[in-house]
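User: Can you predict the 3D structure for this chain?
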Amino acid sequence: MSLPPGFHSEKPNQVCRLLRSLYGLKQASRQWNAKLTLALQKHGFQQLSADPSLFTKSSENSFTALLIYVDDILVAGTNSHHIVQLKKYLDKAFRIKDLGPLNYFLGIEAFKTMDGIYLCQRKYTLDILTESGFLESKPARTPAVTGLKLNNSDGDLIDNPESYRRLVGKLLYLTNTKPDISHAVQQLSQFVDKPRSTHLIAAHRVLRYIKGSPGKGLFYSTSSEIKLQGFSDSDWANCAETRKSITSYCIYLGDNLISWKTKKQATVSRSSSEAEYRALASTVCEIQWLHYLLTDLKVQLPTPTPLFCDNQSAIAIGENYVFHERTKHIEIDCHVVKQKVHEGLIKLMPISSQRQVAYGFTKSLSKPAFDSFHSKLGLQDIHAPT
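Assistant: Here is the predicted structure, written as structure tokens:
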């Protein structure tokens, strides 16, 4: 490294001795995490194996949880005195800045009431609309045209693909509090390498949809029952080019939606039953992780967890240990479903397609079907006029 401007010395060939890690070096974040982890462990916190960014400390009359994202920290607990002591300890060790009660964290706004907590990304949404020039646009009723399937051949290549990539990246982060746009954004993210005009039009449709209610978010009730239930669905051979299927699931803690996903499967499924079975495997892994996480948070869950699927053949495969001609080619990791059914972690339950909540994560729905799907997600907009 070169000496800073204005530095003069009579001795030639001098070097600079670093007294601390420079921000931005490859090892800086790892060193910071190691130092913070050591400091918290000295204070009595335990790092959870299910989520290394989550630390907990429990005693006879209190429980404290601490969540870390680089150098941003969230603290929650049952004893305010212990939280004050923790902040004093961290301030002495690192000179922290106390931002007070939770109201804004990494672009997510939080509003607490006696009935629960409401999470949204209103400011983040308005910033996206302003930057894209859609703040004054006409709102759309759904995030995608009914039955829309994008491909790599329709339309012309756009001149500025970087802007499309930035927009899709921002929309992906927006799905943290807006699960209703998950399927539309999943479709857009498949074409970030060579985006075309049709893809950009579909992205603008999503912008027009979120323009209708930028303050819409998730509400988590304090009176909800502590019980997990999952919904798994798949759209067989959805991709017209690769013929790969889509895995989708959503998991509720009581009436509160806490986990959801929409993703293209890695391999081609030979039947709709196989596609549904692969989706079940992904859902089971997520349920198992949630059990680990909630157990570390001192939450006791009843078992087995009901997992709803609208494909009877996939349920039969998950409950039957006999390998048939149609299942012997399926990868071994998918048979985690059978193992967890046998262990009593989950119980596969049939459900009609009309009542399948995860159905909206696999297809672009019409307005009536989308409204039905939207009502089951628990989305609210406290900024909307009554």
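The chain has a mean pLDDT of 87. Residues 28-100 form a domain with the TATA-Binding Protein fold (CATH 3.30.310).
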